[in-house]
Amino acid sequence: MDNGPSEVVFTTTSSPIESGVVFRYGQGSVKVPAPRKRGRPIGSTKRRKTGNDVDDPERKDHERFQFINLGSNSANIDRDTRKYIRKRVMLNHTHTNQKRKQVSTECTTEKTSTATGLSPEVMPSQFGRVDPFDTLPIQFEPYMHDLLSLYITTIWKTLYSIEKRSGCNPMVNYWLPLAFNDPALLHSLIGCAASFLVTTNQLCGYPFFVKHLNEAIAIVNRRMVDSTNSLSDETLVVVASIAMIKKMLGYHDEWNVHMQGLKSLVDIRGGLDSLNDKPLIQSKLYRADLCGSVDAAQSPYFSARYQGNCGSGSQTYHLGHGFWELDRLLNLDILLKEAICNLQNVTKTLSTIKDRNHQAEAAQVRFWITSTQYRLLSTSLYLQ
Q1: Where is the composition biased (Basic residues) (predicted)?
Q2: SS3 assignment, position 160
Q3: Partner of 191 for a Cys bridge, out of 213, 238, 297, 381, CB 3.0 to 4.6 A?
Q4: What is the average pLDDT value for the chain, to the nearest integer?
Q5: How far apart are the C-alpha atoms of 127 and 291, rounded to whole Å?
């Protein structure tokens, strides 16, 4: 009998015909592998593979993605090349993030001192693009979007307080679509929004104000070389906007310079009558003219349009009781009676403007106020 190790296995039944079985191991005991545990272990968050992963489970991650060569010459990008490319891209990404954080820190800590005159400043480069397909006339950046958003949601209510009553927003309905097709006008709108930040003592808007105002002026100066572009509607609006901004910041002499240039352009264009079919542009020129003329009590640049149009002495003016008593005692001038009647109409009409159905009434109120200001300032009697 072999002296090697052996095992005898007996059946669990008590049948007399079934004997035990002997297993002999000439090479040592048999190593039986432990049974495999099937299923995910408890607490595992690994998801079951689906789709392409099931079809090709042995495929590695870097093999499931391929570099696409967009050049004219095809080239085989091996694994080492892909690794190098990924490394360079990551380094550039890290470098860009560091610059962005540095610019953000400088912008928040920098304090810009106010100056008596406007001088160009070096603007920090902005990262990120709002217009990736270059559909706008200028390279648009996130802070520009913020300034325009401030303009069309908040600032416009100050500039168009009458139109606001009727639910009309000229910034959204007219000026912004026009500016998206003209770089100078878009720069002027952004600069105007930044100037409002300056007037509210938010000096962070001053560099943006100077940058975009200078850009708008530079574009207009280049257009002056070409007589056709210098007379466009957008150019007139840009010059009027710059004049208003300068006057709002207290630069009356510069307002005069811009208004003289605007008056010359309008005369070459054919006068204000050439803009009768564009009331918003015409109103923009009037407001730029009046914003400086009212403060200085001087005759407006476009005063000829309202001179010599005073009503006749036989015309009846329906004055309020208090003004009627004043007229009876002082025998008021016809021009003053007309102005008082217009202001009475303004007060009465404003009380009825409540929704979009009254946009025509809002335009009429704007006309009454503008015409009254022009009539009073254009008469030498009240400028002495």
Answers
A1: 34-49
A2: coil
A3: 213
A4: 78
A5: 38
